[in-house]
Write a structure and sequence with these properties.
The chain is mostly helical and 424 residues long. The chain contains 17 helices and two strands. It has helices spanning 12-29, 44-55, 62-75, 138-158, 161-176, 204-207, 210-220, 229-248, 250-256, 261-276, 280-298, 306-309, 314-334, 350-355, 358-361, 380-388, 392-397, and strands at residues 105-107, 121-123. It is globular.
Length: 424
C-alpha cells in the first residue's frame, strides 16, 4: 500500500495569504525558545533550528509553512475518528479491534443471498478493490496518521494552539479514550472475506505511516497545549503494548520474516517504537540487523530492488521500499548506526538504490520497468534523503525533482514519505 496523498494542491492565493500571516500569528501567540523534540524519525535538533530560523524571519521558509498550515487548517473541521464506528466489528466481535481488507483481492462471483461476498476472492496485483475503503478502519486510520502529523508540525512551527489541541483530540480519541480506543494489535489487518480473518501482511497498514504518529507525539510532548502528562504516559503505554505485540505475536514474527518491502517496513516500525518507548538497545539491534537481513538480499549490486521490480507497480514499490530504508536510516542516526555508509558483499547500498531512480526521478529517462501509473514525484523525498546524507548525484538531482501535490515540505519535515498513492 502507498500512503494516500494529503490535502490537494495548495492554491497560489492561499499560499500567498498564509505566507503573509505566518510571522504575525507566531508573534501574536508567542512562545518560549523552542525545544528539540525527541522524535524517532525526524531529527529533533534540525526541527529546532528550522523553528529558530522561522522565528527570525527566514523568508525562504514562508512558502513551505504556508503549505503546511493550509494542510493543518483542512484538518480542523474533520474528525476525530474512532475504530469503534465501522459498520461491522472485526472477526471475533470486538469493535475496538482494527479491521482492514486486502486491497488486491476481488470477488470472483456475483453476490447472491447464499454468497453475499461473491466468494471465492481472487488476487489482481496492483488493482485496488474499491470495497476495501468501505466498512473497515483503513481510511480513518490514515486520516489519524496524517492529521496528527500535520497538526503537530504546524503547531510547532507557528505556535497556534488550535493545531495542538486538535492533534491531541485526534490521538486521544483513536488510541486512549476507553470508549473509542483501538486495541494495540493488528490481528485483523487485511482480512480476505471467506478466506482469512486477518493476515500478517496487514501490519503494513501501520508500519508504512505509524512512525509519523510517534513523531507527532514527540512534538506535542515539548509542551503543546491540550496534551497532558497523563496523555503522554498513556500513549507511551499503548506504544509499549503495540511494540510487544509486534515482537511476540505470530503475525509479527511472520511479517518480520518477509523478504520484500514488508520486512523493511516492519524493521522501521519496530525500531521507531523501540526508540520511542525507551528501548534503545532493541532499536539499535534492529537497525544493525537490517544491513545483512534486508539490504544484502533485497538490493542488487546495481542498486535495483528485484522483488519490487517484479510488481505491476514497480516504480511505486521501488520508491516505497526506499521510504522505509531512508526512515530506518534516520532512526539509526539516533542510536549510533550509519545505515547510509553500509556496503554489502556485492557493493549494495542505499545510495546505489536511490541512484538507480535518479534518471526517472529527474525526467532524464523513462522508467524502464512495468508501472501501471507512473508519478515522477514519488521519488522526490528519497532523493532528498540521499542528498542530505551526502550523495553528490542526489544533491545535483534535487533542483530537477518534481514537487508532489501540495508542494515540497522537505524543509519542514525532512523524512521521506510515500508521495504517490496506490489507490490512485
Amino acid at each position: 500500500m502507498g500512503r494516500r496523498p494529503r490535502a490537494g494542491v495548495v492554491l497560489a492565493a492561499v499560499v500567498a495569504l498564509a505566507a503573509a500571516v505566518v510571522p504575525a500569528a507566531s508573534a501574536h501567540e508567542g512562545r518560549a525558545a523552542p525545544k528539540a523534540p525527541a522524535t524517532a524519525v525526524l531529527d529533533g535538533a534540525r526541527l529546532q533550528r528550522t523553528k529558530i530560523r522561522l522565528d527570525h524571519g527566514d523568508a525562504g521558509l514562508r512558502h513551505a509553512v504556508a503549505g503546511l498550515t493550509a494542510r493543518a487548517d483542512g484538518w480542523l473541521d474533520q474528525g476525530p475518528w474512532t475504530v469503534v464506528d465501522k459498520p461491522k466489528p472485526a472477526p471475533g466481535g470486538d469493535v475496538h479491534d482494527y479491521l482492514s481488507q486486502a486491497p488486491y483481492w476481488w470477488p470472483s462471483q456475483p453476490a447472491t443471498a447464499d454468497n453475499p461476498w461473491g466468494c471465492p476472492y481472487v488476487q489482481r496485483d496492483g488493482q485496488r478493490n474499491p470495497e476495501v475503503d468501505t466498512g473497515t478502519d483503513r481510511q480513518d486510520v490514515e486520516k489519524v496518521f496524517d492529521s496528527s502529523y500535520d497538526l503537530a508540525l504546524a503547531w510547532y512551527y507557528t505556535g497556534r494552539k488550535q493545531y495542538a489541541r486538535k492533534a491531541a483530540d485526534v490521538l486521544r480519541t483513536w488510541f486512549l479514550a476507553p470508549d473509542t480506543r483501538m486495541n494495540p494489535n493488528l490481528d485483523h489487518g487485511q482480512f480476505i472475506p471467506c478466506r482469512y480473518d486477518g493476515r500478517a501482511i496487514g501490519i503494513i497498514d501501520f508500519s508504512q505511516s505509524y512512525t509519523s504518529v510517534l513523531d507527532a507525539v514527540a512534538i506535542l510532548d515539548t509542551g503543546a497545549p491540550g496534551w497532558s502528562r497523563t496523555d503522554r504516559t498513556a500513549m507511551r503505554a499503548w506504544n509499549t503494548d503495540f511494540r510487544d505485540w509486534l515482537l511476540n505475536s505470530p503475525f509479527g514474527t511472520e511479517e518480520g520474516a518477509a523478504a520484500n518491502n514488508h520486512g523493511t517496513f516492519y524493521d522501521m516500525q519496530l525500531a521507531a517504537l523501540a526508540y520511542a518507548t525507551g528501548d534503545r538497545d532493541l532499536a539499535r539491534r534492529t537497525v544493525l540487523d537490517a544491513r545483512s537481513r534486508r539490504i544484502d538480499p533485497q538490493i542488487a549490486a546495481d542498486g535495483t530492488q528485484p522483488q519490487e521490480l517484479a510488481r505491476t507497480r514497480s516504480w511505486h514499490y521501488s520508491t516505497f521500499d526506499l521510504v522505509a530504508y531512508t526512515r530506518l536510516a534516520a532512526i539509526g542516526r539516533h542510536v549510533g548506526v550509519d545505515l547510509w555508509a553500509y556496503r554489502g558483499p556485492d557493493g549494495q547500498s542505499l545510495f546505489k538504490a536511490v541512484g538507480q531512480l535518479l534518471p526517472a526521478a529527474t525526467g532524464a529517462a523513462p522508467w524502464p520497468y512495468p508501472e501501471l501509473e507512473f508519478h515522477r514525484f514519488a521519488a522526490s523525498d528519497v532523493v532528498h534523503a540521499a542528498a542530505d546524507a551526502g550523495d553528490r548525484a542526489a544533491r545535483a538531482a534535487v533542483p530537477k525533482l518534481e514537487a508532489p501535490p501540495g508542494g515540497d515540505l522537505w524543509a519542514l519535515r525532512p523524512a521521506a514519505e510515500q508521495l504517490d498513492s496506490i489507490a490512485g
